[in-house]
Each structure stands twice: as structure tokens, then as C-alpha cells.
Amino acid sequence: GAVVSQHPSRVICKSGTSVKIECRSLDFQATTMFWYRQFPKKSLMLMATSNEGSKATYEQGVEKDKFLINHASLTLSTLTVTSAHPEDSSFYICSASRPQGASYEQYFGPGTRLTVT
Amino acid sequence: GENVEQHPSTLSVQEGDSAVIKCTYSDSASNYFPWYKQELGKGPQLIIDIRSNVGEKKDQRIAVTLNKTAKHFSLHITETQPEDSAVYFCAPRGGKLIFGQGTELSVKP
């Protein structure tokens, strides 16, 4: 399968600061990348979809000014949590989509555990 | 919007037994049906998928069956092993993946 990496794997930050999470597709060019959020013992919730070189599409209820997404290349997308608060603490997971014939397989990164103190 | 339901939410089996998890979806436009395995503290891993023009797919101990008419697909794991213990998610896709609530599988040695 395809490899997607995330960095950092864990981050602790203070309230009011910003933190950036990187997502990279290591062995394929990802036309589309996705950002998810997952609370303990819950399912994955899609936050936004980003295509290389264009603005991200955010899901309803997700603040685009708080969760800044940049997809500058076909192998890198970043999520910046601005002015973080304790309620932003969560497990953030990215995924990258690789065209495979008529369908698009989606591969997930290992996740980033964000703790805001 | 799309509604995805996964059953059961928890499943406990003895090592060597089979496990079946069912996923029901509402979007008739769904054309891609993956199953993901997520271990604690890690991202989901694609374990098997099926497309809408196929009714069944098997990969060693894992199989997926699809009933498009009834809008459900199932994950079958045979000869379960303790390392199969994890949370499993279905995520049927029409326009985007919609994740089920997850099934926590526990395989007891």
C-alpha cells in the first residue's frame, strides 16, 4: 500500500499559540488530501478536503480561519491550528488519495495527537 | 445526508473463530466500499476494499461481500488471531468517505 506520513506524531502547546501539522505522501502524488479529527472511542470526522494548488473545502461546522489548510504540492499538505484552546485537543489524521482507475483509494497517515494546555 | 450504520459496535470472539461486521449505507451513488483497521493510537489502515461491480472479494483470511440492492456490505475475518484485535471501520464512498461508528473487535486467546 501507499505510505503517508505525519509530523509531529505528538505535540503539546499552550493555549493561544498555533501549531502546524504536516502530511506527506511518500511514494505517490496525491491529487487530493483530507484532514480528519477523531475523539477518543469515536469515529473519524472529516474536517476538510484539499486539492493541490486550490483552496480547501471545509465541512459544515469547521472554522476555516481556525484550521488553516495549505496544499502547496502534490506530496505535502499542512494543517495549522491557530489560537489553540484546550477543546482543540484531539487526534488529527490526514489521508491522501491516489487515483486508481475509476476509483480513488485513500491512505491514512499515523495521526497527530494534539494536547493544548 | 449519507447515513452509515455499522453493527455490532463491539464483538468478542475466541481465537480461531470467525468474525463478521456489517455496514449499511443510504447513498445509492456509493461506488467504493473499503474497510479500515485502526489500532490504538494509530491511523486507519486499509485492509480490503470492493467496488460496485463486484459482489465479493477475498484476501487470505479477510473477505468483503457487497449487496448493492440492499445497500450493505460486510467484513468477514476467518481463523481470527489476537493480532486482529482492533477497531474496524467501514467507509462507503459516493463523493467522499463516510465512516461508520466503528466495531471494536476483541479476539481472546
**Structural class of chain A, please?**
mainly beta
Oligomer category:
heterodimer
User: How many beta-strand runs of chain A?
Assistant: 11
Give the N-terminus to C-terminus distance of chain B in angstroms.
41 Å
User: Order of strands across the biggest sheet of chain B?
Assistant: 1-3-8-7-6
Poorly predicted regions of chain B = none
Global morphology of chain A: globular
What gross morphology of chain B would you assign? globular
Strand content of chain A: over 45%
The helicity of chain B comes to under 10%
* Unreliable stretches of chain A: none
Helices and strands of chain A, in order, run as EEEEEEEEEEE
Helical region count of chain B? 0
Description:
The complex is a heterodimer of chains A (117) and B (109). Chain A is 0% helix and 57% strand. With 117 residues, chain A is mainly beta. Chain A is globular and about 40 Å long. Chain A contains no helices and eleven strands. In chain A, β4 (32-38) and β5 form a beta hairpin. Chain B is an all-beta fold and 109 residues long. Chain B has no helices and ten strands. Chain B has strands at residues 4-7, 10-14, 19-25, 32-38, 45-51, 56-59, 62-67, 72-77, 86-90, 103-108. The termini of chain B are far apart. The mean pLDDT of chain B is 94. Chain A binds chain B through residues 1, 4, 6, 34, 42-46, 49, 93, 95, 102-111, 113, and chain B through 31-32, 34, 36, 41-46, 49, 51, 89, 96-97, 99-102.
What keywords describe this structure?
heterodimer, A: 117 residues, mainly beta, seven-stranded mixed β-sheet, four-stranded antiparallel β-sheet, 11 strands, B: 109 residues, five-stranded antiparallel β-sheet, five-stranded mixed β-sheet, 52% strand, globular
